[in-house]
Amino acid sequence: MNNNELNERRLQATPRGISVMCGFYAERAENATLWDVEGREVIDFAAGIAVLNTGHRHPKIVAAIEKQLQSFTHTAYQIVPYASYITLAERINERVPIRGPAKTAFFSTGAEAVENAVKIARAYTRRPGLITFGGAFHGRTFMTMALTGKVAPYKIGFGPFPGSVYHAQYPDARHGVSTDEALRSLERIFKADIAPDQVAAIILEPVQGEGGFNIAPVEFMQALRTLCDTHGILLIADEVQTGFARTGKLFAMEHHNVQPDLMTMAKSLAGGMPLSAVAGRAEVMDAPAPGGLGGTYAGNPLAVAAAHAVLDVIDDEKLCVRASVLGQQLVAVLKNACENCPQIVDVRALGSMVAVEFNDPGTGLPSPEFTRQVQARALEQGLLLLSCGVQGNVIRFLYPLTIPEAQFRKALDIIIHSLTQ
Known about the structure:
By secondary structure, the protein is of the alpha/beta class. It is built from 13 helices and 15 strands. The chain folds into two domains: about 5-60 and about 320-420, Aspartate Aminotransferase, domain 1; about 70-315, 3-Layer(aba) Sandwich (Aspartate Aminotransferase, domain 2), CATH 3.40.640.10.
């Protein structure tokens, strides 16, 4: 069995709508390293799209899953509950930056968490409207596609989408959208599309993921909090990609000194197991009636066990601190590369949520072509990188925060060579 054979079988067995980036197939993985079915070794700077902040197969996570396997794998929490779900909720409630007592409910995917946050917000406010932002990514279900601010490839051919969803501008000084202009775009929505007293929630990523790792300015987030308080609107922070130490804090909202009413989380919550959550103010979380929230696999005990271990690893190995240290090292390399890589127009980072943006030096236009070239050069040297951005001209770096120092330095050398060769 080799990569080419598997690729032929994939094309016959699975639909084209499930796109696949890499031409090789994983056989095993350890921490920040992948090996394919032909024995090739790759440094993983994708981490399952930000799922593996604690690396592939962390021993503590593997041990936690193995221990749970010896007890039970599924009861459906809503039918027969179990203590580990409750204790995980308690641990998260203690650590989320939310005003007042918090409660947490578990689901399986990030999109599911966002869907349920919308349900909770509407149940609490008795309002229909939702405001999100251009460049946002919130998922692939119908409600989360409506919230997502990027057409290709997520929305093409799938409409119509749920109504009462409006898109404001996300602040992005690099592309001419100031904090003031972003706030004015919200006021235009209130004037032209929906009255503020009909808006249930404003939802945003503190750092946009798919949108290009755009970082919300502190003053913008604080202004949103004031705006929401003025009009009785809930503020939902989508921390699916930013959560669990990636930005140098457990949650990115901690950088803004702003407390949302609801938060969604998934990805690195369970270190590779499918688990998501909505946490929020207790009175808001209690708005849906009994039976209004849940799911057959929501809060699966194996995934819950893994999440307990993830929180332990983040604390024991000081991964928030390590995220800041590694991010600083990578940013220094990228900024030094600017002298020999005229395509670089911006380097931005919050902890280890790092991105570099490319334009064509001649035209000044976004260059997805150069982005793909850098990715290809890196992969030839054994480093897996992901792109993002509405124009596809940004590379994001999502290495496990547990990556060994020597391997990280090797990856930095590959990045330098890929940018400047």
